[in-house]
Amino acid sequence: MISIKKLIERNGEELFHATLDSYCSLLKAIGESGVQACPPVGSTLRQNLLPLQAAFSTEPTPTLLRETGQKVEAEITQWGCGAADYFKHRAGEIKELMMILARTAELIGERDQRYSRQFEEFTGRLEGMADLHDLAQIRDSLVKSAIDLKACAEAMAAESQQSVARLRADVRVYQERLDEAEELARRDPLTGLDNRRGVESSIESRIRQGRTFSVLILDLNGFKQLNDTCGHLAADEVLKQFSAELKSGFRAADIVGRWGGDEFIVVLDGGRQKANVHLERITRWVFGDYTVRVGETSRKVPVSAAIGVAEWQAGDSMRTLLERADAAMYRDKHGGVKSKA
Fold first, then answer.
1. How far apart are CA 325 and CA 307, in angstroms?
2. What is the pTM of this model?
3. 296 is a domain residue
4. What is the pLDDT of residues 88-144, one digit of tens each?
5. Which domain holds residue 160?
6. C-alpha to C-alpha distances, 53 to 35, 67, 224, nearest whole angstrom
7. What one-character-per-residue DSSP string does 180-219 give?
8. 301 beta partners
9. At a CB cut-off of 8 Å and minimum separation 6, what does 204 contact?
10. How many domains does the chain have?
11. Looking at 125, 151, 185, which one is the last position of a domain?
12. Phi, psi (5° rounding) for residue 338?
C-alpha cells in the first residue's frame, strides 16, 4: 500500500489546490446557509465572505490561511449574534402582542362582571314589582328600569367599540411591523432586489397556481477579474447599477432578484416567446459600459452576462425548472447556443 505520506509527496500540489477549492466551496456554502437561516443578517455574512474567497485567487501563504481562518470565525460569530438578536426581537414582538390580547380579554371579563351585577339589580327590581299594587309605582319603576337598562346597554356598546378599536389599532401596528420585517427578509441589502428566499417564494406561488411563467438566470461575465482589478467597492457599485438597469426592463408584476454573488434571476409571467423578447432587450439595453469610481478616478467597465432561460411546464418542480435554466446559462457561458428549454 502507498502510505498517505508518500501520496502527499507525489501529489502535494494537486492535493493542496483541491483543498483550497474545497475551502472556497465551504465558504460559499456557509454564506448561502447563513442567508437561508436568517436572511436579514445572512446576506451581510455572504457578502463579507466573498473577498475572503477571492483572496485565494493569488498564491496563498500560511499567513493568509491563518488570517482568513480568523476572519471567517469572526464573521460567523458576528452572524450568530445578529441572528440571535433578530429572532429575540421577533419573539419579543409576538410576546408583546399576546400580552395585549391577554389584557384586552381581562378587561372584557371585568366589564362583563360589572354589567352582570347591574342586570341582576334590574332583574331583582322587576321581580319586586310583582308585590306592588299601585299602578303609578309600577309605571315609575318600569320607566326607571328601562332608562337604566338603556343606559347600561349603551355603555356596554360604547366600551365594546372602544375595546375593539384599541385592539384593532394595536394589532394593526404589530401587523405592519411584521409585514415590514417580512419584506426586509425578502430583500437583498446591497441591491434592493428580491433575495433568493423571496424569489423561491414567488416561484412556488406560481407553480401552485399552475400559471405559465419563465425564469431567466444571469451570471455576470468577468466579475472576478473586476473584483481583482477595481476592488470590491467598485464591484459592488456595478452590482447596484446593473440591478437597477435590469429591474427597469421588466414590469412591476415580474420578479427580479439577486440569486447570489454575481448571479441574478428573473421570474416573468408568460412562455418562452415572451422571455426571448426580454432577452433581446437585456442584451441591447442592460449590457454595456458602466461607470464606477476606482480610487480618485472614474472608470468605464464593460458589463455583460451569460443567460439561461427555461419555461415552466406542468409537472415541473422548482428544482427541475431552475436546473434547466442553470444548464442553459452554463452553455451560454461557455460559448454554446442558448437552450430552447
1. 8
2. 0.54
3. yes
4. 766 666 666 666 656 665 556 666 666 666 666 666 655 555 555 555 555 565 556
5. 96-185
6. 17, 12, 10
7. HHHHHHTB-TTT-SB-HHHHHHHHHHHHHHT--EEEEEEE
8. 290
9. 318
10. 3
11. 185
12. -60, 135
